[in-house]
Known about the structure:
By secondary structure, this protein is α+β, with helices and mostly antiparallel strands. The protein is globular and about 100 Å long. The N and C termini lie far apart (72 Å).
Amino acid sequence: MKTDELREKYLSFFETKGCLRRPSDVLVPRDDPTVLFTPAGMNQFKNEFMGIGKLEFTAATTCQKCLRTGDISNVGVTPYHHTFFEMLGNFSFGDYFKREAIHWAWEFLTDAKWLGLDKDRLTVSVYKGKWGFDEEAFNIWKDEIGLPADRIACLEEDENYWPASAPSEGPDGVCGPCSEIFYHPPGVDGDVEIWNLVFTQFNRVGDPPDNLRPLPSKNIDTGMGLERTAAVLQGVSNISNFENDVLKPLCVAAGDVVGVKYEFAAPQGRAIRRIADHVRAATFAMHEGVMPDREKENYVIRQLVRRALLEGYLLGRKDPFLYEIVPAVVDVMQGAYPEIGKTVESVQNSLKEEESQFLGTIERGLSRFDRFAEAAKSAGSKSISGDDAFTLHTEDGFLIELTEAIAADRGLTVDMPAFKERMGVHEEISRGGKTVSVMAAGPLDLLRKEHGDTEFVGYEEATCDSRIIGLIVDKKSVDSVPAGFKGAIGIVLDKTPFYGESGGQVGDSGWLKSDGVEVEITDSQKHQQTLFVLEGRLRKGQLAVGDTVTAEVDTERRSAIRRAHSATHILHHALHRTVGENATQRGSKVEADALRFDFAHKQALSPDEIRQVEDIINSQIVGGSEVNTELLPMKEARERGAMALFGEKYPDKVRVVTMGDFSVELCGGTHLTNTGQVGLCRITSEEPVAKGVRRITAVTGPKALQKGRETDELVIQLQRMLKATKESELPARVEALQTQLKDLNRQLAELSKASVADAVGEVVAAAEEVGGVKIVAQKLEGVPREALRDFVDQLRDNHSPIAVLLAAEIDGKVALIAAVSKSLVKEKGMNAGAAVKAAAQVAGGGGGGRPDMAEAGAKLVDKIDEAIVAGADVFRQQLG
């Protein structure tokens, strides 16, 4: 059975049991602060499990895209570890429970209509531990399913409870026993776990015993690994997920690109499997707009890309290659996720750029590694220190695996305990772990649970009467706010005309008013996309939960936001006409008559392209096309060709904004009724913001008019300053000034060199001599950075053999430079980098370079004299 067929069979089966088929949630949940990536199928149903908000359905089934990096070292090593994977699941929120979950799982696995697995090859486990026994599940398996007792394993809470070991160790909150299902493949030693049934039936309160309280509404959360079950059904060798019909072609493609034939048992097999896995994960994440970078989910993807690239590098591929595997990922995955085919080019461009950058890092970092290795050998050590490995990781981007591999190649090791100690927060981020409990419920969750969602009337009205249902001060719920209170207040209304920030559009501002009460609303945000929270300041009177107020939106500001938001849709259309359909939206920010728009594109727009985009926008504005907004089912919206933002989570019914005959987009923002109401749009900048992503900023309406006036005033001012009678004379006047400045700089440089030549004699006269080698270690006053290099060059050229360490205060900071005669590097193993590093550390800085010349910077100007002494000591030690 093919993987795509298994996915469809599972979802169809649970639909026949009354479960609603739901689409996979996004891989990067933007509105969930508890995780960086979606780690399991249950995450999108967090509110349903906790009873927060209106319950639209009580049973569901999904195939969820997931990404985890907690066991990343096992990827490619074991048969079943991945970073990206798909999890099949069926869920109940107070609907069916243990009996149905077990019976349905058995039916799906064994019935010939579905999977038809041999019943005699299936075994299960249930929870039996110090604090309880899931006798109910045990009896269902034994008495109703008919499994012999010797095929029902009773396991402790660390194996058969969710969360693991919850009764003993916590955390407090919803939890429950598990029942796992195992299959014994023919001709294979051992069983394979294919399904985990979680029965969330308790609320843990405090420590045992008697700390498990039955929940009034019992839930089901199950997970079946798609890749693993497909491997079992296909009877692949080693029952390895990487041998199934999706991952095996990816491994073969990765091997072909690297130039190594893929074979499961070959020495390079693990490396190729890791490459295939990591490229699949990166492709899906980058499709949703997560670009390799330094923070949070972006950092995780950067690490995956670099780990995969490193594997190829160590196999001999020294140029970018991962991007070539992306089409293979799309080929095997677009049957279930056709949308990933729309971003192939932008993902490839971004991936290739990241690869090129890291390969450059590898080459540059090798020289620093060589210095660390030489320093270790000089000190009689055969190990790269943890500090040096950490420096290579944080400053040169060297993954520790790369440092270890190069060290081993040169007969060295790495002090791993010291390195891991230095990593600290980096390891927490790279694991992509949770920041808080996935089931944490704050005051806003409790408000939503008690009162339901906020009714938003802002599309039709700018004012309405509302009732205050919640007040938040310092992140805590309060019943009232006294007169004279000066701090920020979070205010939750039962209905609101204020648009809550989302989809790139900022929140509305305005007022809440009643008899004797005025509250200035400065912002409006959304919690869980459905509970609106107003940020306000009490200007008059006092507030209390239950009060009735009149909510009034600042309509002038709202109109300015509507102009800018409508302009972003026109801009998107203009980009497609100018640079092509691949210029897909990657994000936006819409404010009052100002916007920024991020889009996928591998290179800067030319001045002509920018003018063309601006012309198209203003042509559509002048055309005065009608703007229509309607609420449609997602399927119908897509049939109409509505564009969606990749990585954005949409409800079942979506707002579709249509402008004339040129733009149809899914958008929940506020818009104009006619494009002519934008008035005018001016592009103010175009720049890069991430790999393969560009940003256009623009202004609309009155701000666009003001932008033109400011430009006119600037031109007039330049004409006056440059004594130009006409605007057309300005370029020639500026060019003449540049030529003059260039000549003056050349004259200044010649004077500086002459000055250095005069001073070199004094510097040499003060030199110390050790073993026939002059050591110059001095602080220079009032010299520019270029003069330091001139001093070094003249000292080495005319006074060798010599070792030089010079320091100066430049712009309030310490500048250091060290150099030694090249003959001293070869004959005595001297290293300027070691001297300048020692000096920089004393003055609170860092730096490096080649063995014959190195530079550094530092912050502590008052430590310059001590730094010079430290650097000179290194030179003396090197000379014995």
